[in-house]
Each structure stands twice: as C-alpha cells, then as structure tokens.
Amino acid sequence: MSNQKDFNWDDFGTKGFGEGYSKDKRAEMEALYAGTLNEITEKEVIKGTVVGINDKDVIINIGFKSDGLVPRTEFRDLPDLKIGDEVELFIEEQENALGQLVLSRKKARMVRAWSDIEDALEHDNVIEGLVKRRTKGGLIVDIYGVEAFLPGSQIDVKPIRDFDIYVGKKMEVKVVKINHTNDNVVVSHKVLIEKDLEKQKAEILNNLEKGQVLEGVIKNMTNFGVFIDLGGVDGLLHITDISWGRINHPEEVLNLDDKVQIVVLDFDDDKKRISLGMKQLTAHPWDALSADLEVGSRVKGKIVNVADYGAFLELAPGVEGLIHVSEMSWSQHLRNPADFVKVGDEIEAVVLTLDKEERKMSLGIKQLTEDPWTKGDMAAKYAVGTKHTGVVRNLTNFGLFLELEEGIDGLVHVSDLSWTKKIKHPSEFVKVGDELEVAVLELDVDNRRLALGHKQLEENPWDTFENVFPVGSDHKCTVVSKNDKGAVLELPYGLEGFATTKNLEKADGTSVEVGESIEFKVTEFSKDDKRIVLSHTATFREEAKPAAAPKKAKKKEDAPASSAPAEKSTLGDLDALAELKEKMEGGKK
C-alpha cells in the first residue's frame, strides 16, 4: 500500500498522445514517423504493392498511413496477380467518410492510356491494337483500353470492300488525331503501309523500263480498263490489252484483288502514267494460224461485231476478218448487214484477201453460192424478148433498176415505160418496192448489163395512131394547159397534142381557153417522136393549108390527106383502139 502512495500519478498521467514528450523529442519522433510515409496527392497515378488478396478486394500499400482497397474485378486482366506485385493506381480520395484511402486501377489505366496515346501522337509511335468491331465507315480499335476509330479509307492503300475480316485481329496503327473535347482518337494503318511502299515505289520507278514484266494486284475495274497496284505505283491495263480476243468489260475475264502478271508497255517522262499489257505475254494468235489458210479457203467463226459497212467474223480469239456488206449478197443493192447476220451467229465464209504481216483479212459470204451471172442457163433464161417480173429497187432521173432475182438487176429506161404517156421521172409511174412486168431488150453477160422495157409487153399503138390521126383530119380536143408558147391538148385515146398560141384563135378573134373542148385539125404527126401538132384556126380558115408531116416520120408513102380514106384504112383497128382507150382511161381513174 505504501508503494501505491509513493507512485506519482501526476508525472505519469497524460492529457493526450505525445504529451509526455518534450518539444524536441516530439519533433524528432514526428520526423521519424513522417519519413516512413509517402506524400500523396488526389487525382494522380502512383505505384502500389499488393499486400493482401481476398474474394472481393485487393489490399494495396502505397506507403500511406493506411492501405487502400481496390475491387478485385479491376484486376481481371491479371489472373496471376499475387502478393508483392506492383501495380499502378489512381488516387480518388485520401480519406472517405470512413477514413479509408480510395484507389482505382481502372482510372489509373485510363489516365496512363491517354498519356501513352498523346506520347504516341507526339513521337509518331506505332501502337498495336485489337480490332473490336465494325462500325459505320470503319473499325473500332482498342489501344491501351481506349476505343479509337480507324476509318475505312485508312485501313489499306487499296479499297477495302469487306471490313468484317479484320474484326478480332490485332493490327498495328498510328495515332493521327486526338479530340480531347469528346475523347475521340483517330488512328491509321494505311500510313504504315505507305511508308513501306515509298521505298518499294521508288525502287520500282527507278528500275521501270518498257518490256519489264511485273506482278500486280487489281485494285479497280472500269468499262475501259483495269487499274493495277504494282506496289505503291498504279498502272492502267486498257481493255484492248487484256486479251487478243474481243471483250466488252474486263470483269468478263478478271476479278478484283486478283494477282496478275503484266508487262510495261509505255510510261511518261515523270512515270506518272504507266500503260500495262497482259495479252502481250502470250503469242499473237495470228502467228498460230494454219499454214493451209489462203485466199479461197473456207473458214468458220462467230460474228462478234456488226457495223453499218459490214460485220467482223472471229475465227479464233484475236483473229478476225471483215465481211463487207457488198460481199454478203450477189445483189447490187447494198442493204444493212444486220439483214444478213447478227452478233453471236456462227457462220461459214470464204477468204477473199489475206495479209498475215498486217494481220488483216477480208471474207465473203456470197461466194458460198454460185454467181447468178455465170450460171449456164443465164443466156437462155434472160434471152431478148423473154418476159419477167421483178421488184423496183431504185429510181433515177433516167429510169429505174429492177431486181429480177438476187444478183440479177436490169435497167428500165424512162422512155420504155409507156407508149402513150410522156413520163419525165419514173416516180410518176412506179415506186420502190413495186412489182413490174418487163421484157428483155438487151443482154450483155460479159459486162453484166440487162436492158428491160415495160411498154414492149404491148404492141406500139402509134403504128395505128398514124392512120387515126393523119395530117388534115379533124378531132374534138380538150385544152389541158396553156403557156406562152401554146397549149397542151387531150386527144381521143388519151393522147396528148400541142397547138401554138396563134393556132388557138377562134373565128370571133378570141382564144381557146383551158378546159374548153373544141375541134382541132392535125397539122403535123410524127410516129417516131410521138408528137401530134394541131390547130383550131385551121378548121375555119380555108387558106390555112396543113403542113406535110416531117420526112423522118415517113417510112412509107403518106396516105392522102382526106379523112375518108383514113377512116376506111382504120376501120379494122377501131376495136383495138377502143380497148386501149378503156385501159388508159381506167389507169387514170
């Protein structure tokens, strides 16, 4: 008990932690304690050590007065995490309401990621990312845990048509743009390829020469040709240089992304335009033609083109011959080649000309059949006087061409169309396409000339008219038209006559007018010229004696001028004339 009394409670008692130290001692102790702790700042990334792991949390020591807890879910990417491992963490708060240190590894990774991304942009670093998914216009790539956008145009130097093939694969990229406002990052894979291609491109261009064979990839196709990537350098393979044969579009024989062998045909001084060829890598098909092929040979092929002037027959890819329209039919009237052949037809033809050096040949179809002018029965079939029916093919000022059969044409002169009508142009009588019956007037097989006549199918009525309209005979005529020189008259049987102006005077001094029917006297008759001249004045003036017919019209002695004998000599012809008149009048109707 005495010992308890001897204890000095005042010396032992304290009012607070550290009060038993002197000021110097306390300062010394605080310095020692502070030296064991780190100074930390909120919202920054620091390193910590794992000191404990349980089902929910990972206990981290950062050298602070207390340890921090981080959800274990934030370490899912580190399945082998163990005590003693060092990790980066983001300080959310030094102390929360419970006095605990709040840390986040997720935010630490994000901050570190943005730092690395900015550093990559500044120093042009290459980053490996994982393509997560496809999006509109490109791909989403995970770099350091940040989703970056890779535009479709920045995936490769060549156009990419299928983005899905990259999803789930790793890809090296470079950061090309950072937008801090919306935390958007744009990356490119194309720039990596372009750098590699620059060296390759320079090497290709330096060594480029005509005739050089290269390998390339088809990157684009058009209707006029194909663009081929030669390794950073593009060249054009024109459609005509793809194949020796005809093709309408490159897609008939090539596909996008195909690797092809091509040869350099030409390039400009700057080597910006490079012309390529593919067919030149194979021998020209003309060189493989049979030695037996010569003029007169029969060949088979397919029509590959039809033009206005003819058609092209392909004997083999790259070997074509022209069939001119004039060699398609023996007919002299050129028609459209499409009337004979069409694209895709497989036909036979005869070689007419052949030039293997120039690689040209002309062909004919009509030569497969016999020339109608050389047939043995030609002379007998179209002998002078034979009658035929043909089709009017062409009209000219001097006549018309009549096709009697394919290859056999004849000329009908305008003067051989009618005995009685004065036809100035054949269009007054027929039109193209009409059928016309004719008689052969002349045949010249050697010169392939055939003269035809239509009026020769009937007897010459002027032989009879010579007796019906003798000089001095009177006839009732109608004035059809008038001009300064005189009037055209319509005579019986549809004939035309002429009266000079002074011979139109009537007995009362007036002149016969158009449409008036009145008596006229024949003053001149020419059978050969088919001309009848008349006078009304001569019918009442006895002193106006009729003129004699021209001598050239007389082949026999003229009949007496009186009308009575003329009537007697023509009685036998009246029926024929009446019939002729009916035909002529019927034709007018």
From TrEMBL:
Q: Which PROSITE patterns match?
A: S1 (PS50126)
Report residue spans for region: Disordered.
540-589
Q: Name one Pfam family in it.
A: S1
Indicate the transmembrane segments per the record. none
Tell me which residues make up the S1 motif domain.
Answer: 43-106, 124-190, 211-279, 296-366, 385-455, 472-537
- UniProt keyword list: Repeat, Ribonucleoprotein, Ribosomal protein, RNA-binding
Q: Where is the composition biased (Low complexity)?
A: 560-569
One GO cellular-component annotation of the UniProt record comes to:
ribosome
Instruction: List, as start-end ranges, the regions of compositional bias called Basic and acidic residues.
Output: 578-589
NCBIfam families of this UniProt entry? PRK06299.1-2, PRK06299.1-3
The protein's job, in short, is:
Binds mRNA; thus facilitating recognition of the initiation point. It is needed to translate mRNA with a short Shine-Dalgarno (SD) purine-rich sequence.
Write out the similarity annotation. Answer: Belongs to the bacterial ribosomal protein bS1 family.
> This chain belongs to which protein, by name?
30S ribosomal protein S1
Source species, please?
A: Belliella filtrata
Starting at the broadest rank, the lineage of the source organism is: Bacteria, Pseudomonadati, Bacteroidota, Cytophagia, Cytophagales
